[in-house]
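Feature request, filed as a ticket because there's no other form

It would be nice if the structure record came with a short human-readable summary line next to the tokens. Right now we just get the raw output. Example of a typical job, pasted below so the devs can see what we mean:
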Amino acid sequence: MPKIDSKWLLGLAVCGFAFAGTFASAEPQASHEHSAAHGEPVESNMHEFMEYYFEPAYKELRSEMASEPENNTGWKAIKAHSLVLAEGGNLLLMHKPYKSDDVKSWREHSVAVRKHGGELFAAAKKKDYAAARTAYEAMIGQCNQCHDGFHHGKPKLKP
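Raw output as currently delivered:
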């Protein structure tokens, strides 16, 4: 039987452990990357989230929708704010219902805000004020329905 050099055997063992360690450490890293890739609220307090995310866009959009825009700048502002609010519906899906366990209703309202906000965005891209106004009012109505169900009807938004 040939004699095996102990240094060579030790080197082979170290390489083997290093190789195995690469696969062992890859699993938790992949798992961590997977969890980091999912949405997670930055602000968990719903009052704060509404005040700092939705309220500014709503206030600007309310002013912009008061009359048909006269130029591209006006339409661009409507597109920007309607997109923020529509995508806000997606963000709401990451949050828990405000002071309630009614997840089904929360999700329905969130999806409806996204839907109507998306319709408003699409109408603004076409510069179709009548369709934009209809979608805007539907979105605000949906916001108010959610406020009725989850926050005692407050605040009551006006189109």
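Something like this underneath would help us a lot:
The CA atoms of residues 40 and 94 lie 6 Å apart.
The two ends are 90 Å apart (CA to CA).
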